[in-house]
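Question (not urgent): is this output format expected?
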Amino acid sequence: MTKFFIGLDLGQSNDYTAVSVLERVGNRLENVYQVRHLERVRNVPYPQIVDKVSSMWHHPALAYNSDLVVDQTGVGAPVVDLFRQAGLDPVGVLIHGGDKVSREGGTWRVPKRDLVGSLQVLFQSGRLKISKKLPLATVLQSELLTFKVKIDPVTAHDSYSAWREQDHDDLVLSVAMAAWWGERHTEPPICQVYAIDKTDDDFMIP
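Got this back:
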């Protein structure tokens, strides 16, 4: 069964905003995630990002068979609400340094260690496939190799305050959120899907 997951890491101020599209194939026992699209932008107004992500979400290959997962840690709920107002029904993710996953309405509080762990398992087991044809493939691979979590031995919580450990964790966080949600929700798709045209400009955020 095939399903798509759009991961969106929203940056603040001059930070990068990154978007990724993962295609999940396989079954409930072992899913494989193929990274179909990677993109990062800077200094793009949030309403414009909403419009472009909406175009992506309604693409024939993704329509009615994709989940949008948005990081609201730095930008807050009001920005994520813009996606809800656009009818995209996003899954809000608030990344924290604790050890428990919880949910309040449409927002999930997720420990960064869970995102790191899920992605590392997929990457190390060969279940995360990154096409070398993607322009940002090498950047993502570099971020994957340095994506980690530091645990305070006294509190057993993450020992940093920022959810972004480095300046450019944006791509890997967008992929990590999409993969985490995909592993957590394994219901079958509800409609037929089509092959993505890798050259389709509708996937690009200017």
